[in-house]
Amino acid sequence: MIKVLLILMVLSLSSCSMVGHQKVRHSKTTNLVGFLYPDGKIPDDMNAPVLRLPLRVGLAYIPEIGNQNSIDPTLKLELLNTIKHQFEGLRYIQNIQIIPTMYLSHSQKSNQLKQIQQLYQLDVIALVSYDQVVNRKENLLAITYLTIVGNYIFPGSHFDVNTLLDMALIDLKTTRLLFRAAGSHGSKGATAEAYTRHKYDQHQNNDFSVAMSVLKNNLAFELQAFEQRLRARDPNDDIKVEAKKGYEMAINPQLLMALFLMILIRFRCTHNYS
User: Fold this and answer.
1) Is the peptide bond between 54 and the residue preceding it cis, with omega within 30 degrees of 0?
2) What pLDDT does residue 179 have?
3) Sign (positive or negative) of CA dihedral 166, 171, 172, 177
4) Which of 17, 29, 42, 87 has its CA 20 to 30 A from that of 1?
5) 3-state secondary structure of 117
6) pLDDT at position 15
């Protein structure tokens, strides 16, 4: 009699599980346009930026929207250091500094950017945003099997993770976008309900890391293209370039010829004496 009741119980729960799915959506989001322009509209009459080289660069995350769980702090710091290393060593970059998160919020955006500019003596700021969404569909049958049968062969949840990372270099005087680089990645997974949270946390972190690698490669390309754009000094370009005292963007041809002649004369004198 007891066996019959157990069989009927499992069959009853199984029939419920066929329709017993629950969809859950988690997101971790920051928004560049919403941060710079609260009304969502980018002004049409922004002034053309005038960049005085070499540039002093700030690097920071855009604050997250609402009260949500943040991405792993270690990964977030790793991404900032990756971006920082990409900027370091470039001739048109004087220095780059990471700005603590506490200096940025979703209130008084224009004032806080001016305050950061004055505090750190910056010319431009690299703002990092991300959008990570987890769509999860839970299967109640797996919970039943975990309780009665005691194994987790059958997945309790199916989920997919989609991650977008974006870095935008902004001129602080005009809030104009100078260039941007992005990286994205997506993955799917299934796991027993008892381990779901841990499992899709792993997927989220892994997606963030892969998207970070894609961003790194794209950023290297964009930095090179931006340097070429600055060197060209195209009069039709809306980005104007000036040099700070003692700085030259390109090598002066006359100076290069003079150096060549000095090396040639020194070589001949050394050869004659020998």
Assistant:
1) yes
2) 94
3) negative
4) 17
5) helix
6) 38
Evaluate the CA torsion angle 112, 114, 115, 116 in order and state its sign.
positive
Among residues 106, 23, 113, 38, which one has the least CA distance to residue 66? 106
Q: Which residues are paired to 98 by β-bridges?
A: 59
What does residue 241 show for φ and ψ, rounded to 5 degrees?
-120, 130
Tell me, what amino acid is at 26? H
Q: Tell me how far apart the alpha carbons of residues 122 and 55 are, in angstroms, rounded to a whole number.
A: 8
C-alpha 40/C-alpha 97 separation (Å) is: 28
Per-position pLDDT tens, the chain of length 274: 555 444 444 444 443 433 344 455 555 667 787 788 777 677 777 788 999 999 999 999 988 776 555 678 888 899 999 999 999 989 999 999 999 988 887 665 557 888 899 999 999 999 998 888 877 666 554 444 444 444 444 445 667 778 889 999 999 999 899 999 999 988 777 665 555 566 667 778 888 899 999 999 999 999 999 999 998 888 888 899 998 887 776 544 444 455 556 666 665 665 555 5
> Mutual orientation of helices 2-17 and 140-148 as an angle, nearest 10°?
160
How far does Cα 48 stand from its chain's mean position?
25
Residue type, 89: G
Structure token pair of residue 45 = 């009459």
Task: Report the relative pairing of strands 177-191 and 157-171 from DSSP bridges.
Answer: antiparallel
> Burial letters for 92-105: b for 16+ Cβ neighbours within 10 Å, e otherwise?
bbbebeebeeeebe
Rounded CA separation 272/88 (Å): 44
Identify the DSSP state of 46: P
Q: How many CB atoms lie within 10 A of CB 60?
A: 19
Token pair, residue 9, equals: 């119980």
Output Rg (C-alpha) for the chain, integer angstroms: 28
